[in-house]
Design a protein that fits this description.
The protein is mainly alpha-helical. It is built from four helices and two strands. The chain has one domain.
Length: 148
C-alpha cells in the first residue's frame, strides 16, 4: 500500500491471497475511514465493507478499460492505482540483479526495498550511522616544531 498524502509505502509478503490474510494486511496498514483505490480484482471487494473504508476501483479489463476515474467531477482523475503499479516496477528492478530470491528470504528483500523507498533524505549523519561510524570529528593539522 502507498499513502497518497504521506507517500509512505507498506509492503508485506503473504503466503496466499486468501481473504483472511488480505483483510489482516489492510487492517494493519489502513485506518478506518480511509479511501482505498484498487483495480477491479474481485479479491478487493471486501475492502470497503470493513471499518468504514471507502473502496474505489478502476476497471483495467475489457474493451472499455479505464486507468483513472474522476470520482468527484472536478476534472482531476484521482482514482487510480498507477502509483502502486510503478512501485511494483521498482521492486522488480530492485530484485532483478539477484536473479531470483529464495522464498525464505523474500520478505527481507521486500522490507529492504520498502525501507529505501520510504527514506526521504540521506545526509552525512545517516551515512555515518549506516557505515558504523561515529559522530563527525574535526581533525586538526599536526603541528610541526620549527628549529631552535
Amino acid at each position: 500500500m502507498i499513502g497518497r498524502e504521506s507517500g509512505e509505502v507498506r509492503l508485506d509478503v503473504i503466503a496466499t491471497a486468501r481473504m483472511v490474510e488480505r483483510d489482516d494486511v489492510v487492517d494493519t496498514a489502513c485506518l478506518g475511514g480511509t479511501t482505498v483505490n484498487t483495480d477491479e480484482w474481485s479479491g478487493y471487494n471486501r475492502v470497503g465493507k470493513r471499518h468504514g473504508r471507502v473502496h474505489r476501483a478502476v476497471d483495467h479489463s475489457g474493451p472499455k478499460s479505464t486507468w483513472a476515474l474522476d470520482a468527484d467531477g472536478d476534472g482531476v482523475r484521482e482514482v487510480h492505482c498507477n502509483t502502486l503499479e510503478g512501485l511494483w516496477t521498482g521492486l522488480r528492478n530492485f530484485l532483478r540483479p539477484f536473479r531470483g530470491v529464495n522464498k525464505k528470504y523474500l520478505e527481507q528483500y521486500v522490507k529492504m526495498f520498502e525501507w529505501s523507498y520510504n527514506l526521504k533524505a540521506i545526509d552525512d549523519g545517516f551515512l555515518r550511522v549506516l557505515l558504523g561510524g561515529r559522530a563527525a570529528v574535526t581533525r586538526r593539522r599536526p603541528t610541526t616544531k620549527s628549529g631552535p
